[in-house]
Amino acid sequence: MESAKSIDELQNFNFEIKKIFDDAQDFLPIMGTDYIELYVGNAKQSAHYYKTAFGFQSEAYAGLETGRKDIASYVLKQGKIRIVLTTSMIKGGDISKHVDNHGDAVKIIALHVEDATIAFNETVKRGAKPYLQPTKEEDEHGTIIKSGIYTYGETVHLFIERKNYSGVFLPGYRKWDSHYNPKNIGLKYIDHVVGNVDWDEMNIWCKFYQEVMGFAQIISFDDKDISTEYTALMSKVMSNGNGRIKFPINEPADGIKKSQIEEYLDFYNGPGVQHLALATDNIAETVKEMKERGVEFLYVPETYYDDLLERVGKIDEDLNTLKEHGILIDRDEEGYLLQIFTKPILDRPTMFFEIIQRKGAQSFGKGNFKALFSAIEREQKNRGTL
Question: In order of start, what are the domains of the chain with their CATH numbers?
């Protein structure tokens, strides 16, 4: 098997089904992200936040009105991104325990597959811990088959087979009509989902994705790549063969002070999803709209832009606009990317979002690491957790 590709060796990424990473075995196969489900304390209020701040639209609902007395669940959509917000309406239970332990958090990364039974059998026989046996759900719109396995921490991958289903989302959900649907902000799809794991666990979970799910390691960053004067971390990026599913995995590294990964693990009480990277075709307009709606972003000093063009070369962007919004830029052999990170969107310093626009580049902003993590350290200092 070939070694992991460096940033410079990455092949140009596209969204065709064809395989672009030869090291990936692709025995499932995965066609894309179906949805991301968060377990939350108050799904109705969370849905209002994501609609207002991020421009998501109402899609589907399950709860008392659909015959569910145990949960309320709201499905939001924008572009190809589907977010599900689910809360418990009963005392105790898995959802309540998850929220109590982790706060509002990603529980399920659901993957769209051709055959959910094969996906389950292939991953379990390779060592995955079962979460849900292949299960058929049906209503008047057809049949869904879903199955699931555990990944790091309490996070779950569901395999969703929906080729014989024409309903709005899943059986048990109905169309959610709402008069309140703020304008979308141009978000297109999930670029990648980042997980934080504990000390010395990164390689364990990279091996899991390689051997159990047939992924390939495409990039590796060590503590020399991702470090500041005070903190450090390590990261590897795993991808399926067609490049639609990319999972960077972070672990802490030794530093003088507590890194953002250690802070996350402390407040999340274990490994879990750190952030979702959402793609846009116009990052300046997207970020401008998010700021106007109250979303806060990490601050990068204006000195970051002093030698920007020397570092990244010619770009087709207005530098003053990038500077105004604090948007970061990096380049690889395929082109450049623009990215920015929100502050944690919860009271716990755990989950946040990245907004990314790729103009050819298929890397993950290595040139921005120092500026980014210095910005995070300033926030940690304010919180007293550095």
Answer: 30-175 (3.10.180.10), 187-383 (3.10.180.10)
Coil, strand, or helix at residue 324? helix
The DSSP call for residue 313 is -
Torsion of CA 193, 194, 197, 199, to 10 degrees: 150
Q: Convert 274-300 into a string of H (helix), E (strand) and C (coil).
A: EEEEEEECCHHHHHHHHHHCCCCECCC
The pTM of this model reads: 0.91
Q: Do the Cβ atoms of 234 and 223 come closer than 8 Å?
A: yes
CB neighbour list of residue 143: distance below 8 Å, 6 or more residues apart: 136, 137, 164, 165
Confidence of residue 242 (pLDDT cuts 50, 70, 90): confident
Spatial distance between the Cα atoms of 51 and 70, rounded to a whole number of angstroms: 24
Tokens for 179? Answer: 């008069």
pLDDT > 70? residue 2: no
